[in-house]
């Protein structure tokens, strides 16, 4: 999906903030995003949910999505907490609290945002666009919460809860295995240290247009390519590669053991 770009205007006909907002919002087809959410929103509600403060501040301090984010955070937290309470009746509060924190974390929300292709829809200021704001975990996470807030306001709690549980189903299902957000790169680094091996080295390539890129990452330890990962951004691809490498080292630690001391 490509943006048509800013609408060219002369100094005499410079757009007002509201006009700039309407033009930028109309420059992207939001139907795929609504399809991914599985619910319809009014243009007014969707536009506000997608308006980051950087865009709002650059155009005369328009309303931004932070109030919706606040509301969506509450709806998200209750929805996930209730589901975990039902699914894991024997787990103590300390466990399900950690599960919830992981699932609704910035990283969990950003993962969901990338799954539904949210980045291209966010209305950002020029500074954030220049620094790849559409791929920042914090912006993706906050905007996802704002969308939940907009859905709640227009449709009520149960429909909003339904959207949230569908989008987070995999994370809720796998919470029983991990219980918390797993940083595979850190785990791999620690495992290499235990084996007195060289530290992991990552390489990555990217394919596809700017709005629909696919990253492929490889991780190598002591000259052995141990894992490959594919994702919508470099971080996710490297995490997958690290997870694959850990699986290999469980079966064949001798591949890399003592390589650090040997090369010293």
Automatic annotation (TrEMBL):
The active site is at residues 73, 145. The keyword rRNA processing applies. One of its GO terms (cellular component) is cytoplasm. Its main location: cytoplasm. It is an enzyme of class 3 (hydrolase). It is found in: Cytoplasm. GO terms for biological process: mRNA processing; regulation of gene expression; rRNA processing; tRNA processing. InterPro entries: dsRBD_dom, RNase_III, RNase_III_dom, RNase_III_sf. Its EC number is 3.1.26.3. Pfam families: dsrm (PF00035), Ribonucleas_3_3 (PF14622). CDD domains: DSRM_RNAse_III_family, RIBOc. Mg(2+) binds at residues 69, 142, 145. Residues 183-251 form the DRBM domain. It catalyses: Endonucleolytic cleavage to 5'-phosphomonoester. Keywords: Cytoplasm, Endonuclease, Hydrolase, Magnesium, Metal-binding, mRNA processing, Nuclease, RNA-binding, rRNA processing, rRNA-binding, tRNA processing. It comes from the Bacteria. GO terms for molecular function: double-stranded RNA binding; metal ion binding; ribonuclease III activity; rRNA binding. Homodimer. Belongs to the ribonuclease III family. Digests double-stranded RNA. Involved in the processing of primary rRNA transcript to yield the immediate precursors to the large and small rRNAs (23S and 16S). Processes some mRNAs, and tRNAs when they are encoded in the rRNA operon. Processes pre-crRNA and tracrRNA of type II CRISPR loci if present in the organism. This is Ribonuclease 3. It comes from Corynebacterium incognita.
